[in-house]
Amino acid sequence: MEFDLVIVGAGSGGYEACLYAHRRGLKVALVELSPETVGGNCLNRGCIPSKYMRHGAYLIEKLNHIKNYGVHPQGYTLDMKSLKENRDRVVVTIRENFKRFAEHIGIPIFYGRGILEDRNTVYVEGSDVKLKARFILLATGSSVASLGDLKSDGKYIHDTDSIWSLEEFPKRMLIVGGGAVGVEFAYIYRMYGVDVILVEIKDRILPSPDIPEDSARYLGRKLKKLGVDIRLKTSVQSCSVVDGKVYVNLSDGKQEVVDLVLLAVGRTPNTSYIGLEDIGVEKDQKGFVKVNSYCQTSVSSVYACGDITSQLMLAHKSMYEGKVAISHMLGETDLKKDDRWVPKIIYSAYEVASVGLTEEQAEDEGYDVKVGVVSYVTNPKAMDDGENEGFVRLVVDSDSGNILGCHIVGPNAGELIHQVVHVMRAGLKADFLSRSMYTHPSLSEAIGQAASEVHYGPISWSRRA
Amino acid sequence: MEFDLVIVGAGSGGYEACLYAHRRGLKVALVELSPETVGGNCLNRGCIPSKYMRHGAYLIEKLNHIKNYGVHPQGYTLDMKSLKENRDRVVVTIRENFKRFAEHIGIPIFYGRGILEDRNTVYVEGSDVKLKARFILLATGSSVASLGDLKSDGKYIHDTDSIWSLEEFPKRMLIVGGGAVGVEFAYIYRMYGVDVILVEIKDRILPSPDIPEDSARYLGRKLKKLGVDIRLKTSVQSCSVVDGKVYVNLSDGKQEVVDLVLLAVGRTPNTSYIGLEDIGVEKDQKGFVKVNSYCQTSVSSVYACGDITSQLMLAHKSMYEGKVAISHMLGETDLKKDDRWVPKIIYSAYEVASVGLTEEQAEDEGYDVKVGVVSYVTNPKAMDDGENEGFVRLVVDSDSGNILGCHIVGPNAGELIHQVVHVMRAGLKADFLSRSMYTHPSLSEAIGQAASEVHYGPISWSRRA
Prior knowledge:
2 copies of one chain form a homodimer.
Chain A: E1 2-8, H1 12-23, E2 28-32, H2 40-45, H3 47-63, E3 71-73, E4 76-78, H4 80-104, E5 109-111, E6 114-118, E7 121-124, E8 129-138, E9 142-144, E10 157-159, E11 172-176, H5 180-191, E12 195-199, H6 213-225, E13 229-231, E14 236-242, E15 245-250, E16 255-258, E17 260-263, E18 267-269, H7 276-279, E19 302-304, H8 315-329, E20 344-347, E21 351-356, H9 359-364, E22 369-375, H10 380-384, E23 391-397, E24 403-410, H11 413-425, H12 430-435, H13 445-456
Parallel strand pairs in A: 1-2, 1-8, 2-5, 8-19, 10-17, 11-12, 11-17, 12-13
Antiparallel strand pairs in A: 6-7, 7-8, 9-18, 14-15, 15-16, 20-21, 21-24, 22-23, 23-24
Helix pairs in contact in A: 1-8, 3-4, 3-5
């Protein structure tokens, strides 16, 4: 069968790319392991189900303060079974919607492992078909990394693949890894009444250099206040299951006895067993596919997007790179891969959003940096909503006025950051943000105030975070 | 006493202007009726307390569906007293913060009515002082309009000034006026268990031409579903209080018996008794102060901002105009008054946000209009949050690709709209929004999808709203 484009992998990147390619007039086919994996990790075992549970956790937190609004609940019971059922229903609905929609617009999905046979052919194992195409887009995603000997047993020790099958809340759990996934699960389980120990080998949670230390520290304080037991500079030495309990030996010599361990320690790209080597698609030492700024690999007809192109494993990065690749296939060169301006959102006890450089990164790059920081403590909308915590931090180049980065912690940070994403991508300066219009009362006002602080110094209602 | 600038009115516009003027190096004084009215209508009897109650209503709605997240509350009781106390505490906190802050940075507040004595003098009644200044900024705001004979009695019949003193929920109430204020109160009281009748004289709620009919209808359906009894094309003929009940005779011949009537029928500008006529500041027939695009009145040293300059009585419009006025005082001409691109947010059973032109307005102005509409029904983040209702509607000029308007109904519409506000103000086109980056999953994605629809037609997960 012949196509303009065959996309290997129907995760976030693959399916967004297939819709875009279809829109742009290309004849597209999708290859995906099985009908149950359409949507990839994000949909089936990642952002979508975790955001569902995180919203539940957020609602429990709101419920615990609802008396401030004259509502007095007479207690509540928790039930993971219905949480899980409703969560899984959302996942299945999105997955089935997508399959139906692909069928409706005439995009075939071939099930099985897609293997590159030559620069214009994908062999689909399982379906046993060969798909010919002018272009191939690899969007095969990533898999959970293991941590030495520590592996999911699907019962007492879980990774972020197996945790979704959990049918009851543990009483006490230990999470290994204080990155984005670790802090999200810590918040979720804690709000659902679980005693949570969060173990992180580095000296702070969210140890990525893209997240300012202030954001990490602010979140850490809140998690602790909610009762999460955070252990920094600590690693897991060994784990053993005895009589239904997990005995975890930590690097500080302590032993913790828990009902469940969750490993949240990163992912590795799926770049093996798909024929890359056979046709000469180059990889780097870490196993990522090498691509140019149009997401084109060393074989010109083969493109790649998402988790297999760099350590920045975010669904929207993949979705964007899919568009970059397809635009380039169509002869356009204005869209480019751009890891630097990809926004990153962490959903935990706060939403923690970052785009661009931190203050430290900007200084390391030689910028003379000005920073505007506005706290939500005195933001009227945040006060009305009972969520006046967090801040907006805007990092600006003193010389040019260009916005180098923005870091928001607090309510709706994950949506608010888009204002700055657009403005940065348009090359507009901080002054533009200070002179734009913000509705009153709104959380967005803090963005304009932070921009004004850059120009006029720290005068506003707000204290520094 | 001599100042660079005297601002008459310490409402949203006045106090934002005073901070901005201070930042820009001007020596400023504020004049306000009394210590209790600092913050103006928005803070004391408008957006701030109403948004507090609206958040409570929203939480009750969430609570009614929280079982989907495995949380089973054992019922709840309602208590307006603690709602009111906590609401008023937020208002007082913001007011006192502001006064303390003004004192801290050396801005004096003179209490009493400010009256223009000449083009550079404000006489403060009550304080009995004369303030001399190079410039005067009038920010005196507006007052509730009356509806013929119908007036607040502070007990059975309330307006939006007196309603805040209410200490108990009525069993059954009737709201006169289906505009922004009417639909907000209808939602609030309905969620707190009150039987609400909403009477609107026009053939739709939110009758302003700036709000698309689709937004109004979508909100109307939800209010009805929640049990609000909406009566369109209906007016109140008469009202009488007998034995603690209000008998309301409607234009359709029906009589309703309720515990409380709320009049939500608009406001009139405070432009009388402040000396405008004495020094020759011109007003229009409706009583608004005439200003040029720099908010300067017919007397060059006197500026005006906010509710007294036009029917668009929004706090942020006033805050923006204050900045426009001060920039002009400083000799700058790049900031201009601009009623057209002021975003409008309604907080009711949904957030309803609008900026720029509706489809109808754009067609009336002769544009060849393209519209992109994306529903939240299939937005993954909205599904995770259990709020997958509403839509983004983007109105674009086919010829230029310029964005003419954007109308969002649904979760967080009031924050999301700012993305489009910035992009419109920067003169960026719809194509820019379609090519920007949106995190996944996010509500913001719908904005990018609506922009893509404009270019490529309606293909996406979403159905039309």
